[in-house]
Amino acid sequence: MTNKITFPLDNARLLQELRDEVYEYFEVNGIEKTGNASLYFKSFVMFLLFFAPFTIVVNFHVSFWENFFLATVSGFGMAGVGMNVMHDANHRTYHKKKWVSRFVADLMFILPTHPFNWINQHNIAHHTHTNISGGDEDFESNGIFRFTKEQKWKPYHRFQHLYAIPLYGATTFMRAVAWSFTRMYRHFRDNPKTPVTKKRKEWATLITLRAVYFFFWLGVPIIFGKNEWYYTFLFFLTMHFVCGVILTTIFQLAHMVPIAQTFESDDEKDSWIVHQLKTTSNFATGNAPIRWFCGGLTHQIEHHLFTNICHVHYRKIVEKKVRDFCKRKGIPYLEYKTFQGALNAHFGLLRDLGRKPA
């Protein structure tokens, strides 16, 4: 973070008022704010999609196209695990017992990422400083993309709506190879007072888990598998590409769309709750299959305001109360009714911002 970003306390009571209304419903009806049986069933399905194809290609001979199909299914499973399992686990809402959520979150290396990095980049930086340049790391692309009019235009941005999908597909692979290491390096560089023992522990954990990750996905099928060695790399790269496209695109639809505002670090800001409502958009909340697969990511407004509530409660409980509250208070509630509408809006934004400024 380049400088300290703060929010005015004006209207801060609005957030507490809204939370009191939502929490009262859970208390009166005796409902836990964390995961339930529907979440755990969904977790089973997502893990099955993730690992069953890999088990097949390790233990049986498959053709090229069978290998490709199974890798695609595994990519959907990897994305599903990230959105429906690890996301809630890292926000400590997966299970009412915090140690269970922590245990599930520690499995995040299978995606691959690292819980320490995720918490710092997503839970803290993104959720606190949403869509603020210099504060929200999910908002930065090192010049590869131009997401706002304030960001410097470069000639290749003319094509960013075309190269977005290939680069989105590379995100989880690059996270496995390099980004987890550079992200941790930047964190310790920006926090020089971090104890040496903490640094050593996190570096050792990251290196060890990454070695286990590559041995599992590449070493095991090459050594013990029934197929040619290059099938292993094709499976691995295809799985990552599919997962990367899904995860990155879904995350972009909540914040990198025309109706969601963006800010520079020194811009005048609203209170935190109003800022979240201006910078976050829901999409396709009425589409049951997409909502089920994407977890809480279709309900980003509710998620940003209630990170301590599991996504399985957003549709039936939180959404109605937040909508009604925003209507009563005259606060914007941003959304795209359909997935296609949000998708068109995102790529339209990339195309418009890719044009050379007048």
Summarize the structure.
The chain is built from 14 helices and two strands, in the order H-H-H-H-H-H-H-H-H-H-E-H-H-H-E-H. A two-stranded parallel ribbon has the order 1-2. It is globular and about 65 Å long.
Distance between termini?
Answer: 31 Å
Helix/strand/pairing class, anyone? Answer: mainly alpha
Estimate the helix proportion, in percent: 55-70%
What's the domain count?
Answer: 1
Placed side by side, the strands forming the largest sheet appear as: 1-2
Query: Would you report the number of β strands?
Result: 2
Biggest sheet features = 2 strands, parallel
How would you explain this protein's 3D organization?
The protein is mostly helical and 358 residues long. It has one domain. It is built from 14 helices and 2 strands. It has helices at 12-28, 37-59, 64-90, 98-105, 115-128, 160-169, 171-190, 196-224, 229-255, 272-279, 288-294, 300-305, 314-329, 339-354, and strands at 282-283, 335-336. The protein has a two-stranded parallel sheet. Helix 1 (12-28) runs antiparallel to helix 13 (314-329) and helix 8 (196-224) crosses helix 9 (229-255). The longest helix has 29 residues, at 196-224. The protein is globular, with a radius of gyration of 21 Å. The protein starts with 11 loop residues before the first helix and ends with a helix.
